[in-house]
Amino acid sequence: MRKRTTIIPLLALFGLVLPAPATAQPSNTVVSGQARFQILSPTLVRSEFAGDRVFENASTYNVVNRHGFARTPYRSRVENGWLVITTSALTLRYRVGSGPFRADNLELRTAGTTASPWRRVVCATGQLCEAEDQHREALLVAADHPGYTGAGFVAGFSYPNNGITATVRATSAGRHRVVVKYANGRGGDGKHENRTLGLSVDGQAPRQLTLPATADWNDWKQVEAEVDLSAGEHRVSLTRRAADSGNVNVDSLTLLTSGQPYPADRAVDDCRFGTSCEAENGALTGPGKIADEHAGFAGTGFVAELVGGTRLRQPVSGVPAAGTYPVVLRYANGVGGDGKHEPRTVLINGQPITVPVTANWATWATTTAQLSLPAGTSSLDVTCPATGCHVNLDTIGINNPVQHLPLGGYRRSLDGYTGNSGDPRLTPGLMYRDGWYLLDDTGSAYANGTPRPDRGAQPYQDGYVFGYGQDHKAALGDLATLTGGPKLLPRWAYGVWYSEYIDRTAADYRDRILPAFRQHGVPLDVLVVDTDFKAHNTWNGWRMDQSKFPDPQGFLDWVHREGMHSTLNIHPSIQGTDPDFAQAQATAKGKLAKGSCADCYVFDWADPDQLRAYVELHQKMPTDFWWLDWCCDGSGSSLRGVTPDTWINAQYAKMGAFAFSRGFGSLQAGGYSGSGPLPTGPWAEKRTTLHFTGDTSSTWGAMKGTIGYTSAEGVATGMSAISHDIGGHNDTTGIRGSETYLDNGQVRYTTKLPDDLYARWVQLGAFQPITRLHSNHGDRLPWQYGPAAQASATKFLNLRERLVPYIYTLAEQANRTGVPVVRPAYLEYPSSPEAYSTVDSQFLLGPDVLVAPITTPGDVGSTRVWFPPGQWTDYFTGQVYQGNTWATVSAGLDTMPVFLRAGGMVVERSENVDNDVQNPAGPLTVHVTAGAKGEFTLYEDGRRTRIVQRGDIALVRSSSARDWTFVVHKADGSSHVVRANGRAVISLRAPR
């Protein structure tokens, strides 16, 4: 919200019943000692390692369904000491008896790619154990304070059960020192004092570790504790318990014997022969740094501008025989710190390699060297001449030129995003260009939120290996079956929403706003009531202000009578002076704690008493669903294996039609936008949540950035219901709007967008999963703009309302198949390079509608469009474009580039309506495009009507008595209309 042709296809319509999925059979399991593999689909295999041979069969918070897959044919055999499992899409190899999964003992092959899905870093005595390499519980990696090693440090420990667990290996039995490198400055609680964490080995009772205050957050110190260890592997955990103060940053830890100094030698996993490995995962010493400020890298970052004295060591395993092999470096070579832009030299095992220039630091290229390697295990050492290498190194491929580059990505929100510095930085998810992914579910709690039991020193791994190649839809389908499909919202939620952060009253909505919608012919389905409706405190009060909403239930009843639904904005804390605080604290049994906001108390939703107190606070405020506007308050959840967002959103979905919230992380883990990832959230979140993407700025760049983001998040996480602030939230224009409001007793005007930006943003919003007008005290209603912009916005908001039957059908398909409503073209055209290069400028709405928004100023704008294979017809003008071509398409404010695929169909209402609820079954229009066969199945709350294109007549066999109209788009660019008028057989030829 804020900080504070003429041959026309045949159509046949008839009811469709889909078969239930088959149940997976027990024979889908292969056990090899302590390793178990479950073949769930041709493109999905569960890989589980249990040192105690106790395998897990219960559902987890991520993985709610392992039994919904059809039985998959596969073959398994043991060959040369390797267990080999083969399906029609992939081969998985595990070296029998080799222990937990890691790079050198588990291999995936799919669609020409060889990969090592599992990375396991074990820190031997005397090795540096980077905190970011180990299992983290509700902690983010940060890099905003200098002096750290590796990619950053683990930040915060601000909530109970925040922690890290490192796997260490004692090289001999006896007394050892666990040494931790940390910083302890002034915490978010305002205190600067000694802090504590719990130190535990192998799940034993923790001891308290005191971390004395440091000068500031840039001052790194060491603290240690002695432990007695047997030789072999152990688990060392640093956790904030209820009795600990936390609020520290941890950079690394190490296991040392007496007298050993703190090491610089970082523990790493191998890079397996035949795979491509991340440079940032190697052992880096010297002045080199790991960075992430340039887009386009693989993995989590890159090794930045190598200089003299830098050494990057990468262990290599599995070389089949001594010989000369290609080593592929992915790099960027821009203008170096020495001011030069020229070919550079990198040394690999002492052999000089010439690295050509790239256009800039955000342009990545590859170069190949031939290196001699011995059989078995060795290492690659990348070093620089004394003058430096001055290149950025992203990956090292050993006998493998294929890059593991992400497609799409997610983040908690786009808060503050302006678009002035490129596209938003995303966290990779499911989809990769080389067609594989590991969903590591090891840390996920059980499905009910109960943490999995501690296994002591025994290693345990639980992960799902996706090997889909270019079959991206198969990957999304596997994910939806495994973790649950994206939430299907009520049909009305796909209509038009109006929201604004401004003080409104029930009378405002009843007497001014809704009548204006009706007067100007603009539909409205959802009223969003922002935070100022609250009494006592407009931020975190828990009653509706009686002076603004004298009859809260009456207001909601009025909303329903008008065919709408509403939501109320919530912030998750409560003032100590709130009239409901005493009861909340009593219900919580006195456990509500002071938050960082002034005189506020916050909730730990993991505690049943505090959760009950929190839920009961909502009961005095009637609404259809809740908008949890995560911001600055500090409530959260101490549950292990469940992110706070995911947990509380699931509770909100029980209280209303769905959860409406930011997702995928937690503010307690860093920053207002919380852009970093937390485990489990991205996979469970979509089952309950409409993702509100936060407070962007009102700029052309921000609008353009959301084009690619919607489909990027969809393919990365399976989320389909994504809602942006249409028009942006934060004003950047200063243009006076049409309304006034009071701000600390002063009269101020609302702001507005330039007419062209407003019109274009509404056009884009009409084709997004959710169309929600929103602003921070800004004009977003069509009649608040000039004639051309008003006409355009009115036209496209009505079009959106007409498209609700189509979009609802796509949403129901997404719920079943995992394929999101808004999608990148490569889901439908995976073999076309242009489908990947155009993701930031165009998208598909379902398989049949191509949308290429105009994102430049002016009453007439243009955009360059790539048309996928087939034939495409302009929805507004009828112009026909051939597939596999490019065209520059221009449009005034009254239209935009939207195209229908030949053979595709779009179903929409035949008439404009005020809302969806009061118009559920009116006449429908089917847009039919000539030139190819096709079909579409309309979904209407349990009833399905299948539409099939085959010839030039239509057979109407539907249980619906409604009238059907067919708009027939011909290959010569003309069109005509045929009305069914209740007949069972309709000729679709042009009327004579």
* CATH architectural name of the largest domain: Alpha-Beta Barrel
Order of strands across the main sheet = 45-44-43-42-38-37-36-48
Shape: globular
User: Which range best describes the helical content: under 10%, 10-25%, 25-40%, 40-55%, 55-70% or over 70%?
Assistant: 10-25%
Spans of at least 5 consecutive residues whose pLDDT stays below 50 are 1-25
Topology record:
Blueprint: E1 11-15, E2 29-32, E3 35-41, E4 44-50, E5 75-79, E6 82-86, E7 90-95, E8 106-110, E9 113-115, E10 123-124, E11 128-130, E12 135-137, E13 140-142, E14 153-156, E15 163-170, E16 174-183, E17 195-201, E18 207-211, E19 221-229, E20 232-239, E21 248-256, E22 271-272, E23 276-278, E24 283-285, E25 289-291, E26 302-304, E27 311-319, E28 323-332, E29 344-348, E30 351-355, E31 365-373, E32 376-383, E33 392-398, E34 436-440, E35 460-467, H1 472-483, E36 496-499, H2 506-519, E37 526-529, H3 552-561, E38 565-570, E39 574-575, H4 581-587, E40 593-594, E41 600-602, H5 608-617, E42 625-628, H6 644-655, E43 659-661, H7 681-684, E44 689-692, H8 700-717, E45 722-723, E46 735-743, E47 746-752, H9 755-766, E48 771-773, H10 787-802, H11 804-817, E49 822-823, H12 833-837, E50 843-845, E51 849-851, E52 860-867, E53 871-874, E54 880-882, E55 885-892, E56 898-901, E57 905-909, E58 924-929, E59 934-940, E60 943-949, E61 953-956, E62 964-969, E63 975-979, E64 985-987
Parallel strand pairs: 1-61, 10-15, 22-27, 36-37, 36-48, 37-38, 38-42, 42-43, 43-44, 44-45, 58-62
Antiparallel strand pairs: 1-60, 2-3, 3-4, 4-35, 5-6, 6-7, 7-8, 8-9, 11-21, 12-15, 13-14, 14-21, 15-20, 16-19, 16-21, 17-18, 17-20, 23-33, 24-27, 25-26, 27-32, 28-31, 28-33, 29-30, 29-32, 34-35, 39-41, 40-41, 46-47, 49-50, 50-51, 51-56, 52-55, 53-54, 53-56, 57-58, 59-60, 61-64, 62-63
Helix pairs in contact: 4-5, 9-10
